[in-house]
Every structure is written in structure tokens, then in C-alpha cells.
Specification:
Elements lengths: L2 H13 L5 H12 L1 H9 L4 E7 L2 E6 L4 E3 L8 H8 L4 H10 L5 E5 L5 H9 L4 E5 L3 H13 L6 E4 L2 E3 L3 E7 L19 E9 H8 L5 E4 L5 H6 L2 H7 L2 E5 L2 H4 L6 H10 L3 E6 L3 E4 L11 E5 L1 H12 L2
Parallel strand pairs: 4-5, 4-10, 5-6, 7-9, 10-11
Antiparallel strand pairs: 1-2, 2-3, 8-9, 11-14, 12-13, 12-14
Helix pairs in contact: 1-2
Length: 313
């Protein structure tokens, strides 16, 4: 029983005379006391306050955008912050250090728009393009941008990037929206199939006359497809890259994480992972003991100064 239905059911039972007043008050209090527990928890998180509004609950960050706490999504960023205190703080600081004022940033697999919103609030005159092909998630992305007054700063695209153009079936679980993929990664009973539009990075940049300075890619296993569909753009623009790479998500797509490293090294990129205090550490190969999931790629022809800055920090 969810809290909202519990409130209604308890009130209905009391008003119908099935629940004595004292029992009604005691059971309602068991729910309400969670408010104090959350107030205590916030002291150790990046969330400054939680606003309970009519129809939605909003987490307001101490230094960052506000985000809706969705009561169906078990892995939303605000809940991750309530679990662990913050969300990818080291990776976030490194990615923001790669985005200069006036840059063009592609957020591929934007979900609720976390990184797009950070770039919009922390940098000036940045051209922001957020790609999110799942209709329900794209609508939530737009809601978050509007919530933070950033809907005119970020251009959203209801399409996915891949190695081909056309349509594809994606698997979407409302309880884990961040796991939407062209493969059924969870096998959960609530997974839905949706048809999405795809294009390639090369076609997109050509069609819209864009150069890419920084690209974040988190597409639940399809990262290699995104990069293969953008080889010409990567070779031409040499953007800084942050790519999520997990062995368990690569496997359903039939490749190994090192295939991504090989592709990008073949284009002249150097590979790094995040270390504490916002420092980059050169990385070799992924093996069964590798724990890193976010990888950074910088091209020495374009990012020599940045490599010296972040690796030498």
C-alpha cells in the first residue's frame, strides 16, 4: 500500500466508523513521523530541502537543479542522493571542468536532464542538446527543465543516437527509467516495449550544422553503436567524452567494453577514469576486476592543456 492510498483508506475507514478515532490518529502518525526522519537524513545529503506540493514532491539541491521525486521510479537521482548522499560527485566535477563557456554539449541518454541542467546553470552561453527517445522520459525531461526555468536553454530531442537511422524497439521499465535500452536488460514483469526514432551522430551534426565540444553518453549498453555512428564527427571535432561502460550492459549487445576503448584509441583518444578530488587517472583495459563504470576520453591534439590540468591535479 502506497502512502497516498494508505491515507485515503485510513480516512475512509475512520469516516465509515470501522476505525476508532484513537487508532486512526496513531496510524496516521506512523506515516507522518517519516517527515522528521527525512529532515534528519537531509543533513548528510546534497539535497537542501524536500518540497511537498500538490501533485508532486520536489527535491531542491543545495547547489544544483531541483528534481521531482517520482513515486514509480526506484532509481531516480533524488532517491540515489537520499540513499548515498550525492550522485556521481567526482564524475560531475570532471565533466563540468570539460565544458567551457560557449561550448556545445550533447547529452546522449539525458533521462531527467541532470547533466544538461548542471551545464545550463554552471556555464554561460552553452549550446545544450539533450537526447531522450523514450516518450514518457522525454516528457519528464521537459518537466524538469521547465521546473528549473531552463526550458529555453536546453534543446531536447525525442530521438536516440545509434549506428543507423530509422525506428527501433526499446524496452522501458517505469520502475527503473534509467535502464531503458534496445535490449531487455531487467526482464522485469513491468517492462514495456516502445518504438523510438533513431539517427546517427554523424547525420545529426551534418543535418543541423553542429560541431560537438563535449559529449556525455549513457545509453545502457548501446554506447558502442552511438560512437560507431559518429566516427566522422569524432574525427573532425575531437570532443571530450564521458561514456558509461558496464560489462553487463555491453554483453547483450554482443561486444566487450574494450571494443569501445579500441575504437576511440584508434581515433587518437587517450582513456581516463575519475579519481578523488576531481583528478583523472590514465586507464588501460577493462577486465573482470574493473570497478569503474564511467570513462573519460580526451584527444591530445585538442585537449593537451586539459589533460595536463586534470591528470596533474
Amino acid at each position: 500500500m502506497t502512502a497516498p492510498s494508505a491515507f485515503r483508506d485510513l480516512l475512509a475507514a475512520y469516516e465509515a466508523g470501522r476505525l476508532p478515532k484513537a487508532a486512526f490518529i496513531a496510524q496516521m502518525f506512523d506515516h507522518h513521523r517519516l517527515l522528521a526522519a527525512y529532515a534528519d537524513r537531509l543533513a548528510d545529503t546534497a539535497i537542501a530541502r524536500i518540497e511537498i506540493r500538490r501533485g508532486e514532491v520536489v527535491a531542491v539541491l543545495a547547489n544544483g537543479p531541483s528534481m521531482i521525486i517520482d513515486d514509480t521510479d526506484t532509481r531516480s537521482i533524488p532517491l540515489e542522493m537520499l540513499h548515498w548522499g550525492d550522485f556521481e560527485p567526482v564524475e560531475r566535477s570532471i565533466l563540468m571542468a570539460m565544458i567551457d563557456d560557449g561550448a556545445t554539449f550533447f547529452d546522449v541518454g539525458a533521462n531527467m536532464g541532470w547533466y544538461s541542467m548542471l551545464a545550463a546553470t554552471e556555464r554561460h552561453d552553452v549550446a545544450l542538446h539533450a537526447f531522450e527517445p523514450i516518450p514518457a522520459t522525454h516528457a519528464r525531461l521537459q518537466r524538469h527543465l521547465a521546473l528549473n526555468g531552463l526550458d529555453e536553454r536546453v534543446t531536447t530531442w525525442p530521438i536516440g543516437l545509434s549506428d543507423t537511422r530509422g525506428q527501433a524497439t526499446f524496452y522501458f521499465d517505469p520502475a527503473m527509467t534509467g535502464n531503458a535500452s534496445g535490449r531487455d536488460l531487467s526482464g522485469a514483469p513491468g517492462v514495456q516495449q516502445v518504438t523510438v526514432q533513431l539517427t546517427t551522430l554523424d547525420d545529426f551534426t551534418r543535418d543541423h550544422g553542429l560541431q560537438v565540444d563535449v559529449l556525455k553518453c549513457d545509453v545502457e549498453g548501446a554506447e558502442l553503436k552511438v560512437l560507431q555512428g559518429g566516427v566522422a564527427t569524432l574525427r573532425r571535432d575531437k570532443p571530450a567524452l564521458m561514456v558509461e561502460i558496464l560489462r553487463k550492459w555491453c554483453k547483450p549487445y554482443g561486444y566487450h567494453p574494450n571494443d569501445i576503448l579500441t575504437l576511440l584509441r584508434g581515433l587518437g583518444y587517450e582513456v581516463f577514469v575519475a579519481h578523488a578530488a576531481g583528478r583523472l587517472v590514465p586507464f588501460g583495459e577493462v577486465d573482470d576486476d574493473t570497478v569503474e563504470t564511467n570513462y573519460f576520453f580526451l584527444h591530445p591534439d585538442r585537449h593537451a592543456a586539459r589533460i595536463a590540468q586534470l591528470v596533474g591535479a
